[in-house]
Design goal:
Elements (H helix, E strand, L loop, with lengths): L6 H9 L2 E2 L2 E2 L3 E2 L5 E3 L8 E7 L10 H6 L11 H4 L8 E3 L5 E3 L5 E3 L6 E2 L2 E2 L5 E7 L8 H17 L8 E3 H4 L13 H16 L1
Parallel strand pairs: 3-7, 5-11, 5-12, 6-11
Antiparallel strand pairs: 1-2, 4-8, 6-7, 9-10
Helix pairs in contact: 1-4, 4-6
């Protein structure tokens, strides 16, 4: 059951929508790191990730900076290795549940890299990518589960080819390279609660 949903979050969940391929209630920053989806590509996969910058530290604006192509390589030793990367995601969910969108859902964000799902390569072309601020074993906050549930519910409604069985981790589509969102992500809780929400939406 939706035991972790408080009354205060249900309003926000009910009020969230996708309009013009953007999530309402999300801050929007327009990343230059995106491409048009191929003409025959349909949004049909949702990929969950984690990220933290510097690794293991939460808060701050460095993830925004990376996705916007503006990360200062001198701000932390780790950044010298990554500041040049041209990467993005559609959504970032911070530890407090705040959502930022960087790329509209009808465009391809650059989150998956070399990847395939059920034999179909280049997952960026047909997927939506959501980053959770965290590490593989940090666990995730209730705020993040609430926000992820609300966003996923809207994504599944608006892009119905993205069925429950097509919501995966980065580790599922690039298993030799990636481990995120990691053992700290509670897939059972997330799938159960999303299933309940989708049943409610069908009534
Ligand atoms: Zn990832």
């Amino acid at each position: 059951m939706l035991s972790f949903l408080s009354n205060s979050t249900s309003h926000a969940i009910n009020g969230m929508h996708v309009i013009n391929h953007r999530l309402t209630d999300a801050r929007f920053l327009s990343s230059p790191h995106y491409s048009d989806r191929p003409a025959d590509a349909q949004v049909s996969l949702l990929v969950l990730h984690n990220i933290s910058l510097p690794p293991g530290q939460f808060g701050g604006d460095y993830i925004d900076d990376l996705f916007m192509g503006q990360l200062n390589k001198d701000a932390h030793p780790y950044f010298a290795d990554i500041h040049h990367l041209r990467v993005s995601a559609h959504l970032l969910i911070k530890r407090d549940g705040a959502i930022t969108q960087y790329v509209p859902f009808d465009k391809a964000a650059w989150h998956a890299g070399l990847s395939s799902f059920q034999g179909q390569p280049r997952c960026n072309e047909y997927s939506i990518g959501i980053e959770l601020e965290g590490t593989d074993d940090s666990g995730y906050t209730n705020h993040q589960y609430h926000a992820l549930l609300a966003a996923s519910r809207q994504i599944v409604q608006h892009y119905p080819r993205t069925t429950l069985g097509r919501i995966v981790g980065h580790s599922d589509i690039a298993p030799s390279r990636k481990t995120d969102p990691g053992v700290g992500f509670d897939w059972c809780r997330f799938r159960q609660d999303l299933t309940i929400c989708l049943h409610e939406d069908q009534k």
